[in-house]
Q: What sequence folds into this?
C-alpha cells in the first residue's frame, strides 16, 4: 500500500547527502530556498517575503505527512549539516498507485548532483517500500535543468499541456514526465 511509506519516516544516508525528516531548526535554511526568486521562477508560488511564510510551508509539510497526504524530505549536506533542499512525493492516488515528485534546491548547490542523488533515493523508497507503480513530475517548459535530471533518472517525457496553469498574469505550459516501476527496475 502507498500508506506503508507513512508508517515510519524513511531516512537515507549516502556519501553525498542525508535525506531526513524536516525539523523546526530547518526553517532558516528553507527560507533561503523559498525566498529566492531565481529558484522559484519555474514554480507556481511567489518567493517568501518573511520567515513566517516559510514557517507556514514547514507546518504544511509536517501536517501533510501526519495526514498521509505527502512526504517531504530535507536534503542535507553531510559536510556541513546544512539543509540544502527538499524533495518528496505528493498528490498520491492510492487507487491508481501513483504519486507526484517534487524538489527544490538552494541555488548555491545547483549542478553538483545533489538533486539527482536525492531523487534516486526517494524513487527507490517509493517503489520498494510502497505500492507506487508510477511516479509523475510536472515541469515548466523553460526549466531545462529539471528536464535533464528527470531524463537522467529514466523518466519519460509524456507530453505538454499547453497554457494549463495560470500564475502571475500568464498562462504556462506544463511538461509531464513519468517513471514506471517495471521500467525502472
A:
Amino acid at each position: 500500500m502507498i500508506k506503508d511509506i507513512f508508517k515510519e519516516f524513511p531516512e537515507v544516508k549516502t556519501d553525498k547527502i542525508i535525506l531526513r525528516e524536516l525539523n523546526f531548526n530547518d526553517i532558516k535554511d528553507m527560507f533561503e530556498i523559498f525566498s529566492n526568486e531565481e529558484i522559484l521562477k519555474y514554480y507556481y508560488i511567489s518567493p517568501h517575503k518573511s520567515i513566517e511564510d516559510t514557517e507556514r510551508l514547514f507546518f504544511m509539510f509536517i501536517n501533510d505527512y501526519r495526514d498521509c497526504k505527502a512526504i517531504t524530505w530535507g536534503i542535507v549536506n553531510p559536510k556541513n549539516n546544512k539543509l540544502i533542499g527538499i524533495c518528496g512525493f505528493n498528490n498520491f492516488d492510492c487507487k491508481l498507485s501513483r504519486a507526484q515528485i517534487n524538489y527544490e534546491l538552494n541555488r548555491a548547490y545547483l549542478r553538483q548532483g545533489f538533486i539527482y542523488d536525492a531523487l534516486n533515493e526517494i524513487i527507490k523508497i517509493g517503489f520498494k517500500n510502497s505500492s507506487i507503480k508510477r511516479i509523475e513530475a510536472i515541469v515548466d517548459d523553460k526549466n531545462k535543468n529539471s528536464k535533464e535530471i528527470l531524463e537522467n533518472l529514466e523518466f519519460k517525457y509524456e507530453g505538454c499541456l499547453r497554457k494549463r496553469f495560470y500564475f502571475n498574469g500568464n498562462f504556462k505550459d506544463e511538461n509531464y514526465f513519468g517513471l514506471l516501476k517495471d521500467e525502472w527496475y
About this structure: The chain is about 30% helix and 35% strand. The first strand starts at residue 12 and ends at 13. The chain has a mean pLDDT of 91. The chain has one domain: 2-184.
